[in-house]
Write a structure and sequence with these properties.
Immunoglobulin-like, binds copper (II) ion, 10-stranded mixed β-sheet
Length: 149
């Protein structure tokens, strides 16, 4: 890569930032007709201390970061404003734990298709930047899950 091209990559902050966040095992839960909510799971790893600020997808009216947990045998769920991504530590979004909740789906999520997801991430000294990922849609049965989403 020439110096000039490299400078160009630095200038385009979002492109330069793409190396920082690794996304693995992403999948979205397939829906049945009439279902307007779903969830997306993945493992995130950042090379520096960072924060997941938000997520969006063209197929949902809104996306929230949620956390689920068991409290004396009862499954509870709450929206969290942001998700901390400590440097070089894998943060799992999985059924029964953290997940991205999709609301007001504009179409059913069919297993075998993919959806585009945009993650908004912020780390120290840098403006929030976005990273686009492609998320495969799968039947929930493909993953052992203690929770409804
Ligand atoms: Cu949720």
């Amino acid at each position: 890569m020439t110096r000039r091209l490299f400078a160009c990559f630095l200038f385009l902050g979002s492109l330069a930032a793409q190396a920082d966040i690794t996304v693995e095992d992403a999948w979205a839960r397939a829906t049945v007709p009439g279902q307007e909510v779903s969830a997306v799971y993945m493992t995130l790893k950042s090379s520096v201390d960072a924060t997941l600020m938000a997520a969006s997808t063209p197929v949902a009216g809104s996306v929230e970061i949620h956390r689920m947990w068991m409290d004396r045998g009862v499954m509870k769920m709450r929206m969290v404003r942001t998700l901390t991504l400590p440097a070089n530590k894998s943060v799992k979004l999985e059924p029964g734990g953290y997940h991205l909740m999709l609301f007001d789906l504009t179409k059913p999520l069919k297993a075998g298709e993919t959806l585009e997801l945009t993650l908004t991430v912020k780390d120290k000294g840098r403006k929030p930047y976005t990273q686009k990922i492609s998320v495969p849609i799968q039947e929930p049965g493909a993953h052992p899950s203690p929770a409804t989403h």
